[in-house]
Amino acid sequence: MADTICIAAICEHLPGKHCVILCSDKRTEIEGIAVGEVRYKARLLSSEFVAMFSGDVLKGKEWMDRYAYHLRRNARDITEESVLDELRKPFDAQNRADISQYISSSIGMSYDVFEKLSPKQRRVALEGFAKRAVDLIIVWLNALRGPRLFLANVCEVVEAFDFYCIGCGWSAASASLSTRKYNVNNSLQECMYHVYEAKKNSEAIPGVGEETYLTVIEIERTAQKALYHPFSPLSLAMLEKQYRTFGPRKYSAEECPALDLRSLGIVQQPKQLGDGPDVSGDVGLHGGSDT
Q: Cys-Cys crosslink for 154: which of 1, 79, 131, 210, Cβ 3.0 to 4.6 Å?
């Protein structure tokens, strides 16, 4: 899993407008050789599509170049019904290109010859083949019916709903948004905070950078155009202030009463493990009842 966090979330609160919140760290790593920072992890693929990436940097660029070419060339063919099929075409082309490159360099075989092999022969030809991990969040800025989120990785292209997270911090960020019961109909201010909080909480995962990039894409339904609002350091400072107020707080012994296990009735008599067969029941180790 890539050393990064990328979050995309939809907000439908503003009347006559759709919004998408994009948030990421700025950390990047090139195949374990070098670690640095990039300003953006989001890229405009076409007038209606934006992508965020995690994983192998060079392979991620190759994927996004392929998607940008396909989406710009076939913009008129993309409809509500066909969008997923269209997004799978660059995915299939990338898989073919990766396999073709591998068999050509390893055994000098062309892809046309590879296609004529039996399934068993194909498995033999692909021994040692490994795809370089890449995850993309692809956002369709659909002005008429609202934005849609898609995930593309080395295995599949699927649609996501409301929000999606990729990178090594995805589990912490997803848990944060789920705990907050993220709702696309909440105010834009609340949605922005929840996304920012998810990014901050994901920093507990090794590999997630502390620097934050956040932008809001505002899609006007009637004008059918998208406006980009990157957050300045001052705006991020305001979100950080909110995080100090509403985010996780450190445990404070001064604010918590002292607990006595005897007074709580958890243990009737002090015992050591091995004193009797009912010890585990007394301390609740096996979930037994008190009766």
A: 131
Neighbours of 282 (CB within 10 A): 16
Distance CA 253, CA 203 (A): 25
Q: If you count them, how many residues does the chain have?
A: 291
List the structure tokens of 232: 């300045």
Helix-, strand-, coil-residue percentages of the chain, each rounded to 5 = 35, 25, 40
- The H or E element spanning position 258 is none
The CATH class of the 6-246 domain is: alpha beta
What residue segments make up the domains of the chain, in order of their start?
A: 6-246
Strand ranges (DSSP E) for 31-179? 34-37, 42-44, 49-55, 134-140, 148-152, 157-160, 163-166
Q: What's the rounded Cα separation, in Å, for the pair 149 and 159?
A: 6
Both structure tokens of 128: 């040692």
Phi, psi torsion values for 6, nearest 5 degrees: -135, 135
Place of tokens 């759709």: 18
Edge-to-edge strands, sheet with 17-25: 163-166, 6-11, 17-25, 212-220, 225-230
What does pLDDT average to in each consecutive run of 10 residues of the chain (291 residues)?
84 85 84 62 90 87 93 90 93 90 90 90 87 89 86 90 94 95 94 96 92 90 76 89 87 73 59 56 44 45
Q: Give dist(CA 263, CA 281) in Å, integer.
A: 18
